[in-house]
């Protein structure tokens, strides 16, 4: 029996955990998809980065970078602007984590429970969900899923402050470790905490592998 | 029997295959080391990047970036300046690839066979080699090993032009695919071509796993 090749869309948020997409989480997502014999296409919004951090001092740098261009570094240039995304072309959507998710894809990092989501990102998540297609979210990315869809079950690792915010808006939160996933079967949402916890790369790799395997089952 | 924990030093060359360290190769090196139960410390030279490329147009950008700061993105800030490296602290040295190797760690990208190597990089390679410690080099990084040590056996994938250059200076080159490694037992050098070839991420992952396993055996 030949396996049906599934098409994953992966939305990146820059390049680097402090101001962009978390690099390990992004790369290991691509690895899991490819190793399972499926295909991926990376996307990122063509917008300015909210901030550029110095990764040694944690200070903000007086630089301007573009989310699509920086994300292209992770994607080895094989990336499209998120405005080109169509739900019809994909079976599964995945959002890796990193602070870029909370600053470039939405405003959770600045605004907390009064956050807004970049319209292209919100539209992509909503379109996939309404089409009954599975969505995976790593690390801090479930904030976007919980904000857009409400009443979903997700994990934020063991962050009780974030748990409280999204419980208030109707979602359930389940604590989990980096090697685990949380599955919302009804909404076809799979989440894993990755570096929300002080985890080793081999642990987040295990969580991401499980997430990708579960998303495939949910198609 | 408890396993002895080995300490790997990993030298990065920026962040992104076109002007820095190849991100997939770097991350998968860290994953292989951690999954094998060993430890890594990332290093990068604290020097300006030779160039900053736009990853969509391939044009040079009028920006200045620093190799250590950009490498810190891959290392999640856990990185030291290469000037702090001491051979006594490490059992194994690994150099992932990417154009940054050929532009920031040495001048092969500009000067070909008249290349020079950044003194700190040359000193690190030479110190580990003289101490009889294994060195792994991915993708284009074997240019540094072959230039510094001469008369080694390495792979550049199937790049006959690069093969010819280093054969002339006394090295042997062995063609290999992305899932393979080339071992120079005498010099304790292990190389794998990674993205020197048009490979899938799951293929380079296999090559890197084999490289790390072989380096461990050579200690």
Write structural notes for this entry:
The structure is a homodimer of 219-residue chains. The first copy, chain A, has 219 residues and is an alpha/beta fold. Helix content of chain A is 36%, strand content 15%. Chain A is built from 8 helices and 9 strands. In chain A, the strands form 2 sheets. Chain A has a 7-stranded mixed β-sheet with strand order 3-2-1-4-5-9-8, sandwiched between helices. In chain A, helix 5 packs across helix 6 (142-149). The longest helix of chain A has 18 residues, at 201-218. The radius of gyration of chain A is 16 Å and the shape is globular. Chain A starts with 6 loop residues before the first strand and ends with a helix.
Describe the secondary structure blueprint for this structure:
The structure is a homodimer of 219-residue chains.
Chain A: E1 7-11, H1 23-35, E2 39-44, H2 67-74, E3 79-81, E4 92-95, H3 99-105, H4 108-111, H5 119-130, E5 135-138, H6 142-149, E6 153-154, H7 160-168, E7 172-173, E8 182-184, E9 189-192, H8 201-218
Parallel strand pairs in A: 1-2, 1-4, 2-3, 4-5, 5-9, 6-7
Antiparallel strand pairs in A: 8-9
Helix pairs in contact in A: 1-8, 5-6
The H/E string of chain A reads EHEHEEHHHEHEHEEEH
Main β sheet profile of chain A: 7 strands, mixed
From the alpha carbons, calculate the radius of gyration of chain A and give it in angstroms. 16 Å
Regarding quaternary structure, how should these chains be classified? homodimer
Pair with the biggest interface: A-B, 30 and 30 residues
Determine the structural class of chain A based on helices, strands and strand pairing. alpha/beta
Number of alpha- plus pi-helical segments of chain A: 8
Overall pLDDT level of chain A:
97
User: Going across the major beta sheet of chain A, what is the strand order?
Assistant: 3-2-1-4-5-9-8
Strand content of chain A: 15-25%
Spatial separation of the terminal alpha carbons of chain A: 18 Å
Shape of chain A: globular
Low-confidence stretches of chain A: none
Number of strands of chain A: 9
Residue share in helix of chain A: 25-40%
């Amino acid at each position: 029996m030949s396996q049906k090749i599934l098409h994953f869309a992966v939305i990146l948020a820059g390049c680097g955990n402090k101001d962009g997409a978390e690099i390990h989480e992004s790369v290991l997502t691509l690895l899991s998809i490819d190793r399972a014999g499926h295909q991926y296409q990376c996307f990122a919004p063509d917008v300015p980065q909210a901030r550029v951090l110095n990764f040694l001092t944690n200070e903000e740098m007086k630089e301007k970078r573009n989310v699509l261009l920086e994300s292209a570094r992770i994607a080895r240039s094989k990336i499209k602007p998120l405005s080109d995304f169509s739900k019809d072309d994909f079976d599964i959507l995945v959002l890796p984590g990193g602070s870029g998710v909370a600053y470039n894809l939405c405003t959770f990092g600045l605004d907390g429970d009064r956050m807004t989501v970049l319209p292209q990102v919100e539209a992509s998540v909503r379109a996939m969900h309404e089409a009954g297609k599975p969505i995976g979210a790593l690390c801090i990315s479930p904030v976007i899923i919980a904000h857009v869809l409400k009443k979903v079950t997700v994990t934020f690792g063991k962050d009780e402050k974030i748990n409280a915010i999204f419980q208030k808006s109707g979602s359930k939160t389940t604590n989990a470790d980096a090697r685990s996933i949380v599955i919302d079967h009804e909404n076809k949402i799979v989440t894993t905490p990755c570096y929300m916890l002080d985890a080793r790369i081999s642990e987040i790799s295990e969580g991401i592998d499980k997430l990708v395997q579960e998303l495939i089952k949910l198609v």
